[in-house]
Amino acid sequence: xRVLTGSVLSAAAFVLVAAVAWPQSLAEIAAREKERQEKxxxxxxxxxxxxxxxxxxxxxxxxxxxxxxxxxxxxxSPGPAASPGAAKAEKPKTEEEIRAEQExxxxxxxQKAQEEVTRLSAEADRLQNALNDLSQNLYSGTRTGxxxxxxxxxxxxxxxxxxxxxxxEEGRRSRYR
Length: 177
Description:
By secondary structure, this protein is mostly helical. Helices cover 69% and strands 0% of the residues. It contains seven helices and no strands.
């Protein structure tokens, strides 16, 4: 009997909670959102910023894949920065800016070295697969060429791995990471 009473009370509580937390209609949600946006407009002074295509494109400063690079056409066009006094008005870089440039340079060098290791590893794998192909003549000049090329790739790979290690150590000493 107690179990039945407990289950009836649980069901009643569930129905009561479901009735109180009845889902809102889409119109109610839209009205609340409109009120919230109007409050934000009043806080901001009423005028909202309208985004144009120039804003979305970064005003011609680069492309999607390279956001910081400027196209040659915009760099060659004369502007306020092209005046003769602009070079004098440039303030010297702060220590943080110099450090940031050095860190970016280091990251670029490290990335290139890691890409070189990846490329050489793939080439070594390709050469090893060709050497493992026993359907060829084992004493041909092609196989000798593959063996020579494999030795050279392994030397280059070891040098590239050492370069990555050196760059990582340089980054650790400079506290870039």
